[in-house]
UniProtKB/TrEMBL annotation:
The keyword Cell membrane does not apply. InterPro entries: Hexapep (IPR001451), Hexapep_transf_CS (IPR018357), LbH_SAT (IPR045304), Ser_AcTrfase_N (IPR010493), Ser_AcTrfase_N_sf (IPR042122), Ser_O-AcTrfase (IPR005881), Serine_acetyltransferase (IPR053376), Trimer_LpxA-like_sf (IPR011004). This is Serine acetyltransferase. Pfam families: Hexapep, SATase_N. Keywords: Acyltransferase, Amino-acid biosynthesis, Repeat, Transferase. Residues 14-118 form the Serine acetyltransferase N-terminal domain. The keyword Transferase applies. It comes from Jannaschia seohaensis. GO terms for molecular function: serine O-acetyltransferase activity.
Length: 272
């Protein structure tokens, strides 16, 4: 652990805020005491809490909670970036999702956040050469959360997946930092081709509900993909695309579409 990592953990405002909110939640609703204690207050760090939640949500008759907890603890212990990425994801959800009012909510209730954190463990396994175990975690994520992210995909920090139902992200997909997407998004291939076959999503991109981005194409930074679009060609930076197939319909509308979350597309009249 570097000195920087030590300083970050000693002033961990995300975890401290979650602890405070957890205590308030029990005071407001004592019936949630068991859940909140076991998931948040019982743990010494955010990493411990994430490992517990990973094991609890993905445990099954095929692999029990204890084994999964050991896997997650090892992942968070060896790769400090996993915990820092989770903190960035929590802040992203809090800042961008109008239904999120506390850091506690993603940790306990939001399957998009939980699926992304579980993916991060599967990706750690993949990078360690433990592909079969990574595939097992991918399967359980799909079964538990309705989200299918290949463990080989590369996903950055500050990710917000709202609602998260029916998300599909392929093996060679790359998702940059500070990306937001809504339910039923597919980052997929176009057939049975092998090797590098999935989209490359730049930083700060907003992908609307039901959008499909297919093939080894680049979506430029801070661009915006309208809901229901099918993107088959490269998208330049800071543009809005819409339609089937998607075409450029204007500028992105703001400097950082993924944080503004503005999905409305202005329609110009014939005299505009």
């Amino acid at each position: 652990m570097t000195r920087t990592d030590t300083n970050i953990r000693s002033v961990d405002f995300v975890w401290e805020q979650a602890l405070s909110e957890a205590s308030d939640a029990i005071a407001a609703e004592p019936l949630l005491g068991g859940l909140v204690h076991s998931s948040i207050l019982h743990h010494a760090s955010l990493e411990n809490a994430l490992a517990h939640r990973f094991a609890q949500k993905l445990a099954s008759q095929e692999m029990g909670e204890q084994l999964l907890r050991e896997i997650a603890d090892q992942a968070y212990g060896e790769d400090l970036d996993l915990g820092q990425a989770a903190r960035a994801d929590i802040v992203a959800v809090f800042e961008r999702d109008p239904a999120c009012h506390r850091f506690l909510q993603p940790l306990l209730f939001f399957k998009g956040f939980q699926a992304v954190q579980a993916y991060r463990v599967s990706n750690w396994l993949w990078r360690k050469g433990r592909q079969d175990l990574a595939y097992f975690v991918q399967m359980r994520i799909s079964e538990a959360f309705g989200v299918d992210i290949h463990p080989g995909a590369r996903i950055g920090r500050g990710i917000m997946i709202d609602h998260a139902h029916s998300i599909v992200i392929g093996e060679t997909a790359v998702v940059g930092d500070n990306v937001s997407m809504l339910h039923s998004v597919t980052l997929g291939g176009t057939g049975k081709e092998h090797h590098d076959r999935h989209p490359k999503i730049g930083n700060g991109v907003l992908i609307g509900a039901g959008a499909k981005v297919l093939g080894n194409i680049k979506v430029g930074h801070c661009s915006r993909i309208a809901a229901g679009s099918v993107v088959l060609e490269e998208v330049p930076p800071m543009k809005t695309v819409a339609g089937v197939p998607a075409r450029i319909v204007g500028e992105a509308g703001c400097a950082q579409p993924s944080t503004m979350m503005d999905q409305l597309i202005g329609i110009r009249g014939p005299d505009a």
